[in-house]
Amino acid sequence: MRIYQESDYQEMSRRAAGIIAAELVRKPECVLGLATGSTPVGTYKLLVEGNRRGDFSFKKVTTVNLDEYKGLAPDHEQSYRFFMQDNLFNSIDVVPERTNVPDGLAQNAEAECARYDALVESLGYADLQLLGLGRNGHIGFNEPGESFVKPTHVVDLTESTIEANARFFASPDEVPRQALTMGVGVIMAARRVLLIASGEDKSEALYQAVCGPITPQCPASILQLHRDVVIVADTAALEKVAAAGVSVCG
């Protein structure tokens, strides 16, 4: 596990975008695992700028997103498909048919989860999987629980996650209560994992993920067992990790 400490959100985004750009240059036909939420927005903006400059291309890339709200249509402004189109896909040269997000409107959600797992497996899993970090330690929508769930599955969102996501909706009542998410087994099958975190409100979750026990009560702690994890976080998010004496790169 390598940890890069950046001064602020912008520098965190710059470092993360550089790591993804290097993967695109190294393997133009790579499989990118992508995340949603506020944290990767700056990274995606920089990737759009680099693509427009011609620094790298997405033409041969296949993308697989971590999750989607259950019950939201792809064109719903708060769906994760819409988020990806708005923040990345519509502004780069990716082939639309090679972008994959779970179908939140599938009549049989369990069958959709199985289909998505089969798809990701057929691609050889992600070459690079981008992750954000929830304040309760979730990755994707893998919430704290009694055990790690390996396959893609339907999850009941915790109240803390619903509260954190309510700012994107007109009211908390509009936040979906369930989502389809890659399980930790699918995430851990990625060749490389890039986790990004920003802000003081992520410092405890990041500390538990890096320094705490490996437990499903902090789903991100499973990354301690991955062979190639890179964490890029700003000073505020790394406050408790740094205080614990963990080595970080500047």
Derived from helix and strand composition plus strand pairing, the structural class reads alpha/beta
SSE topology string: EHEHEEHEHEEHEHEHEH
Rg over alpha carbons:
17 Å
Give the strand order of the largest sheet, numbering strands 1, 2, ... along the chain.
1-10-9-6-2-3-5
**Residue windows where pLDDT falls under 50 for at least 5 positions:** none
- The number of strands is 10
The CATH class assignment is Alpha Beta
CATH topology: Rossmann fold
The total domain count is 1
Report the biggest beta sheet as strand number plus sense, adding barrel if it closes. 7 strands, parallel
Average pLDDT, rounded to a whole number, is: 96
Query: Could you say what the CATH architecture is?
Result: 3-Layer(aba) Sandwich
Number of helices: 8
